[in-house]
Amino acid sequence: MASKTKKASIIQKKYLKRKQSPKKKINDDPYARRCVTQRAPSADQTCPMRLCIFLTSENEWYLQTNSCLHHKYHPKLKEEAIALSQRDLSEQQQSLVNVLFGHQIPPTTISKVLSELNDDDKGTYLPKTLFNYNEKCRNLIDVANGILPTCSDAEKTIQKLEL
Ligand SMILES: [Zn+2]
Question: Nearest to residue 66, comparing CAs of 47, 50, 45?
Fold first, then answer.
């Protein structure tokens, strides 16, 4: 194990290294940001939207006048980046998804297939959305066959074997 003085010198070296490293230039490329960040690239580009609320003694919520309900400086979301829901699936897409799931195709692949077949490039089906859709379909088929969601997995398997 390193001695205390050695540890201290390592920490000192790291500190100096960090101090010497050039600072990140903020305004080089406004698009060179991770899309999941919640921070504005600079203070003057911070979204002014603020919700200030208060609760009265009568247990009623009020919106304070110094609130701001307008968003600003949010980067525009690309059309294909919008997540589609189960309701957006056309009948044709629904049957395609069911067939692909029936052939044990993973939801990530099904999502890619749907994107490939989509002509207008508007929105994407997340694999989780497709997985949930398939689960819903399977549950409906089970109910139609008299297998209730309250049954245990073992009971469901026995009933499926009896079909
Ligand atoms: Zn905002």
Answer: 50
Q: How far apart are the CA of 5 and the centre of ligand 1, in A?
A: 49
Q: What is the pLDDT of residue 34?
A: 47
Q: How far is the CA of 94 from the centre of ligand 1 (A)?
A: 35
Whether the Cβ atoms of residue 134 and residue 101 lie closer than 8 Å to each other: yes
Interval between CA 104 and ligand 1 midpoint (Å): 41
Per-residue pLDDT at 96: 94
pLDDT at res. 49: 92
Q: In what helix (H) or strand (E) does residue 54 lie, and over which residues does it extend?
A: strand 53-55
pTM (global) more than 0.90 = no
Give pLDDT tens digits for 37-51: 667 878 888 999 999
pLDDT at residue 103, as a whole number:
95
DSSP annotation string for 74-95: PPPPPGGGSEE-GGG--HHHHH
Helix residue ranges, H only, 35-146: 91-102, 107-117, 127-144
